[in-house]
Amino acid sequence: MTSKSVKQGEFYELEVDRDLQQSPAYNDDLAPTKVKDRTWSKWNIAALWVGMSICVPTYTLGGVLTAYFGLSVMEALFTILVANIILLVPLTLNAYPGTKFGIPFPVLLRSSFGMIGSNIPCLIRALVACGWFGIQTMFGGLAIHLFLSAVSDGWASLGGVGEVIGFFIFWALNMYVVIRGAESIKWMETLSAPLLLIVAIGLMFWASDKVSFTELLATPASRPADAGFMGYFLGGLTAMVGFWATLSLNIPDFSRYAKSQKDQVIGQIVGLPITMFFFAALGVVLTAASTTLVGETISDPISLIGKIDSPFWVAIAMILIVIATLSTNTAANVVSPTNDFQNIAPKLINHTRGALLTGFIGILLMGWELLKKLGLLESDVSVEGMYSNWLLGYSSLLGPIAGIMIVDYFLIKRQHLDLVALYTPNSLYPAFNNAGLIAFAVPVAITLIALNMPALGWFYNYGWFTGAFTGAIVYFVLANMQTASATQTDALQS
To answer: 226: which of 97, 126, 213, 330 is 20 to 30 A away, CA to CA?
Structure first.
């Protein structure tokens, strides 16, 4: 007996026999989700996005748009709204194959990049996620430190050492939740989604009698007086889209658990734009207000809350932030690289090992900041400066992958995938799909040239958009040429 794909309603399920169990491209964690396990409703999907969107980096992004991209408060709010409406397109489209076939992101990539070639975009996505994991863990560790400082003067005296200890406590919590599996993450997201929202509303209430929001909204842009709006807007838009460019790729890691296509689409529409807009907008307003509130510009809510002269409320807020940040970090930054690392060697790396590998790389990537907090390294790199370059840089890499994936599934494969072949080397899908690899390499090469050629600077500055469109067009042309060539060869042989 051999493994086979079975259609059940709108879903496909894989009946696994010994041939796939022995395949080097297969393990149980990467296998398609069983139909009986596809239990996430539209409200679970929405809660996932609420839980991921309401996080410290989202808040901080708002401040980045005004401080580093030269936008006024109203322009920043408009940019945030437009970006999240745009994001729904790649998110819902790339979620489709995950829902239909129950496959995670790395397995889907085998169709467009090849069985072995899929490891290239997988590793790029994994390293970006590990970077974000380190950043979020730093925020979560800071919240733990401030909580313990609020209840213990002795802990407060630890300073940077306390923050480092908090980092590793929060790190361990993340590992525990992810290793427990998808149901643990679903429960965590549903529980935590409202918590940081409560903190946000509390911050607005605290600030309401101290600043004039009308005046804040009228705050002018920080860019030069003769500079136009459009260039700054597009740069900020690219950064905002780049923020969730990661999830626009690996959304199949979650949509594979959806009850239906309708559930994943509605869940994303309900959960992402409104939540993301509200919390990023909160970041814009309170960052602008922080000078009036505490006498200095502070772009993250943890540090701002730490300035409140009430240990009780600081402690409560930090508990909520720890839980909410944990939900974001596990879903957005650990699930994907865990699956991505498994794709390299499914027989050697299982779910637990993939999660631990993600965690250790996250520690290494944040090593410089940990050493700085311990007083062993000096650095003047700001969080805002790191974000702005970080977002633009990796969006240039992830945009092409998104474009290639969408074109491959909807235009080349016409929404049909061979489930058995996706786990079988040397079958329908080659080791390396040259069309996908070239289509990825072209926009990346142009981006590298653009970094050293001012005339092409726009290609890098708007990296996600330019990369996605270039990758999509090149892949469409090359994939059709491959298909035509294969058809001609088959005709000659017959």
So the answer is: 213
Neighbours of 107 (CB within 10 A): 29
For residues 494 and 172, the model is more confident at: 172
What residue spans of 54-104 are helical by DSSP H?
56-67, 73-101
What pLDDT score does 31 carry?
92
The full set of domains in the chain, from first to last, is 39-398 (1.10.4160.10)
Report the alpha-carbon distance of residue 174 to residue 328 in Å, rounded: 10
pLDDT tens digits for range 366-378 = 887 888 888 887 7
- Per-residue tokens: 167: 């980092």
Which pLDDT value is given to residue 303? 79
Give the number of other CB atoms < 10 A from CB of residue 493: 6
Closest CA to 76 of 231, 240, 200: 240
CA distances from 122 to 145, 239, 336, 341 (A): 34, 21, 9, 8
What pLDDT does 331 receive? 77
Task: Give just the sign of the alpha carbon dihedral 255, 260, 263, 268.
Answer: positive
Residue 411 DSSP code:
I
C-alpha to C-alpha distances, 460 to 53, 388, 436, 448, 457, nearest whole angstrom = 26, 13, 21, 8, 6
Cβ neighbours around 111 below 10 Å, total: 24
d(CA 276, CA 260): 24
Question: Of 131, 75, 380, 368, whose CA–CA distance to 243 is shortest?
Answer: 131
Distance between CA atoms of residues 144 and 152, nearest Å: 12
pLDDT tens digit sequence for 250-289: 899 999 999 999 999 999 999 888 888 888 777 777 777 7
Please tell me which residue, 389 or 266, carries the higher pLDDT value.
Answer: 266
What is the distance between the alpha carbons of residues 92 and 94, in angstroms, rounded to a whole number? 6
